[in-house]
Amino acid sequence: MCVSLVLFTRDLRVHDNPALRAAVDEADRVIPLFVVDSRIVAGGYPGGNRAAFLARCLADLDAGLRERGGRLVTRTGDPVRRVRSLVDEYGIRDVHVADDVSGHAQRRLRRLRAELDESGARVHAHTESTTAIAPARLSPSGRKDHFAVFTPYLRRWQETPLRPVLAPPERVRLPGHLSPGDLPAPEAFSSAEVTAEAVDGGEQAAREALTVWADGPVEDYAESHDDLPGDRTSHLSPHLHLGTLSAIEVAHRVGSRTPGAREFTRQLAWRDFHHQVLAARPACAYEDYRPHGDRWRDIPAELHAWQEGRTGFPIVDAGMRQLLREGWMHNRARLITASFLTKTLYLDWRAGARHFLRYLLDGDLANNQMNWQWVAGTGTDSRPNRVLNPLRQAERYDPDGAYVRRHLPELAEITGPEVHRPWTLSDRVRSGLDYPEPMVDLADARERFLAARG
Ligand SMILES: Cc1cc2nc3c(=O)[nH]c(=O)nc-3n(C[C@H](O)[C@H](O)[C@H](O)COP(=O)(O)OP(=O)(O)OC[C@H]3O[C@@H](n4cnc5c(N)ncnc54)[C@H](O)[C@@H]3O)c2cc1C
Fold first, then answer.
1. DSSP notation for 397-452
2. Model confidence over 130-150: pLDDT tens digits?
3. What domains sit in the chain, N to C, each tagged with a CATH number?
4. Of 292, 311, 436, 453, which has the highest C-beta tally within 10 A?
């Protein structure tokens, strides 16, 4: 009997999964393994929302494997040691895993290779599983190991053919006498509170969401993706983060025939772009990609006001309250709130990124940290000192104020765009509002930032 093992990390699907496909094709028995990594848990897995989402995805992966005669095998501890003990017990020759970009993932793969080398098993790290195009497949000219600018990256990305979508395996057969272990509950990852109102993860939900999106709304994406109150983007990011959808399948499914499809696919290239930056510079999850000698202010009261959505700028506060309540924020609101923290308040992007990871359902190291750095001007933005004016952003992207009214109940009675400037309302109206005065003068704050950047 030939047994192979597939280690699931964050590609929690049976469709278009190169590691699972290869394991099933080469052996007559397969161990589909997920390990609750105690180091990640002990280090404070960020976020109750993500933990709940992950647990839901694992349950659904188990259901997908059961439909094919298998089930998900779970263990807790050090993934490398857990794999090693199964390899030894079942005489496994081949272990399959999706290649990934974070420092933790890269170290895990190196350790896995070193450990299994001793037992004579091979480790196959499958690229183009977490990203549409593997970081190493697109290399810039010269001696650079990654693209630091998006436009040339996009050009190369668009010229590169995507691999075809892989069919899911028909049957997954486990070896006999294998104790599968229990499916982890959210608390196995985090004891933090779950605040998201709807946590519906898993491959089945993801595939349904993709069908709905690709069969209609994507057509309007080019015009509607910045419609803040309409919130008319795909909402596929949590599924892409935990790999219940493969980016390749999403790209194939949406195609590039219409302007909407092309603009949407461009966002998938942004995702790959940030992943290739982190793959080459894993330390940039926590260190400036392009340092400017920033001496960030450290004012906890200001950070708390921002986190709680009490800055006195309704467009900022609406975004932050949506994050707390839904575990979600529209991209435009992420840009506005992140710019406010890093440039208007001149507080460290790391504090903002940590808060986002704690609450976002789609919290993703590559996308979150590299977007935070982009906004903070320490990342890949070619105009690092641009400052978004929250009032102008509000007028442009939430012209009637509907987004603000939806997320700030204390301002829900104020009609029209005046809701963006409550300080201009009459004293009588203002005295009845439980809403703070603006915490900074925008012009002064802008000057402070530009002076700090020299
Ligand atoms: C400060 C900040 C933090 C962010 N944190 C995250 C995060 O933790 N996880 C995350 O997935 N995205 C993050 N983004 C990127 C972006 O906001 C979200 O991917 C997007 O809002 C998710 O909504 P959607 O799925 O409807 O996106 P759509 O507009 O429908 O886009 C489709 C997909 O493309 C990818 N994508 C879109 N925009 C970007 C982008 N700017 N960078 C990289 N990929 C992108 C996502 O995977 C997304 O699901 C962040 C952006 C900012 C400015």
1. HSTT-HHHHHH-GGGTT--GGGGG-GGGS-HHHHHT---PPPSS-HHHHHHHHHHH
2. 999 999 999 888 778 999 999
3. 3-129 (3.40.50.620), 131-163+202-280 (1.25.40.80), 300-452 (1.10.579.10)
4. 311
